[in-house]
Amino acid sequence: MAFEGLSEKLNGVFKRLKSRGKLSEADVKEAMREVKMALLEADVSYKVVKDFIAKVTERSVGEEVLKSLTPGQQVIKIVNDELIKLMGEANSKINFPNKPPCIIMMCGLQGSGKTTHAAKLAKMFKKEGKRPLLIAADVYRPAAIEQLKVVGERAEVAVFEMGQIDPRKIVKEGIKHAKDYGNDLVIIDTAGRLHIDEELMNELKDIKKIAEPNEIMLVVDAMIGQDAVKVASSFDEALGIDSVILTKLDSDTRGGAALSVLAVTGKPIKFVGMGEKLDEFEAFHPERMASRILGMGDMLTLIEKATQTVDEKDAKKLAEKMQEKGFDLNDLLEQMKQIQKMGSMKSIIRMLPGANKVTDEQVEQGEVQLKKTEAMINSMTRAEREKPAIIDPKRKRRIAAGSGTQVSDVNQLLKQFEQMQKMMKQFGIGGNLHGKKSRRN
Ligand code: GDP
């Protein structure tokens, strides 16, 4: 996974910082030297590292931090803040023009993931209700057209191709086709080379003139490290790019590109590719990336949030009640409300270590499920919540109708609840699914 090495090193530095009650300016400076090495090793560009360290040091050696009760934590927070600033604000918006179609031109070196990401983008926008058309303008590799057709089919998006003829003509005809057939989004897959050369740039410039794209997106492979930033700068100088898609962040990259692209080129990373599959694709979230880099940083926030939102007295009361009477659906509802107070499910899941494997789609499904469960419990009477065993088929139909769900959803909830109670019993907490008062033996 990307950033593993960097995360590990930073965590080592932070652990040492936190283990000290007091910090001196020299301690901070020593720690910053280590952070600097770690960032350089992760392939973050030198100038970016220098500026970053200067900023963090300046903010960290102030009295306020050094004299605080938790100076180590404060320094980590400053590093986190500055990492986020370095990557800019979350911004994955594409400005759709008033008059369709919106035209996105994809460019990048061969093998960067251009074709795959053209399809990923198309699939994402299709889900949002757009009617994308992919144009196959990468004509030098015969396999490229075939590949776009394959991924287009997977994304269930139309692909416009004219074989290996002049890509300028293909783009012209493709856009005309989109207008004729009501496609409101056109994504052009252009050719790439192994290196940037004049001929390629001239072709891309011509295509830009013909297509008048609303957005030129550069696809960059994160695995090429420092070179990713060089590629981005060259494409920007020659062609003018609007944004970057950073790919292959699932692989073992050192990740420096994610930290340097905006600072060096001034162009934001809008999306990141996390795998070969079409839904392994996400909007770029600097704060999420920073917490991934800091590894445990987010767990701290999560714990902080939990202590802020969960009232200790309430928690104790619930524990006592559960010992006494068991856990019923009222308690489940209460717990769900407590969790929701901490923020959206998405924000909570994203704070857990390993959460970068969870797709946005899965999180959304979880959120929908949570809402459904809440609605179902809210549609139950007090007696039903306390004693779910009384919920017969007639009651199930009423609950389903009341909560806008299906009887099968109600069945599933009851079954899951029963399993939860079984588990709790194993921990010595009584369950009263059948309305019995069961105490610990
Ligand atoms: P193009 O030459 O720029 O069009 O690149 P392709 O879309 O053909 O991608 C090159 C290779 O990288 C293919 O084998 C893709 O499956 C793979 N690939 C693309 N994006 C990702 C990604 O985000 N993660 C991983 N692991 N592989 C990717």
TrEMBL record:
Gene3D superfamilies the record matches: P-loop containing nucleotide triphosphate hydrolases, Signal recognition particle SRP54, nucleotide-binding domain, Signal recognition particle, SRP54 subunit, M-domain
InterPro entries noted in UniProt: AAA+_ATPase, P-loop_NTPase, Signal_recog_part_SRP54_M_sf, Signal_recog_particl_SRP54_hlx, Signal_recog_particle_SRP54_M, SRP, SRP54, SRP54_GTPase_dom
Positions of GTP binding: 108-115, 189-193, 247-250
A Gene Ontology cellular-component term: signal recognition particle
Catalysed reactions, as listed in the record: GTP + H2O = GDP + phosphate + H(+)
Compartment(s) where it occurs, according to its Swiss-Prot or TrEMBL record: Cytoplasm
Ubl conjugation among keywords: no
A GO biological-process term: SRP-dependent cotranslational protein targeting to membrane
A Pfam family reported for this protein in Swiss-Prot or TrEMBL: SRP54
GO MF: 7S RNA binding; GTP binding; GTPase activity
The EC number(s) this enzyme carries: 3.6.5.4
UniProtKB keywords: Cytoplasm, GTP-binding, Hydrolase, Nucleotide-binding, Ribonucleoprotein, RNA-binding, Signal recognition particle
Recorded superkingdom: Bacteria
Chain ranges of the SRP54-type proteins GTP-binding domain: 268-281
EC class: hydrolase
PROSITE patterns: SRP54
HAMAP family membership: SRP54 (MF_00306)
Described purpose of this protein according to its UniProt entry: Involved in targeting and insertion of nascent membrane proteins into the cytoplasmic membrane. Binds to the hydrophobic signal sequence of the ribosome-nascent chain (RNC) as it emerges from the ribosomes. The SRP-RNC complex is then targeted to the cytoplasmic membrane where it interacts with the SRP receptor FtsY.
Complex and partners: Part of the signal recognition particle protein translocation system, which is composed of SRP and FtsY.
PANTHER family named among the record's database cross-references: SIGNAL RECOGNITION PARTICLE 54K PROTEIN SRP54, SIGNAL RECOGNITION PARTICLE SUBUNIT SRP54
Family in the record: Belongs to the GTP-binding SRP family. SRP54 subfamily.
Domain remark in the UniProt entry: Composed of three domains: the N-terminal N domain, which is responsible for interactions with the ribosome, the central G domain, which binds GTP, and the C-terminal M domain, which binds the RNA and the signal sequence of the RNC.
Name this polypeptide is given: Signal recognition particle protein
Biological source species: Hominimerdicola aceti
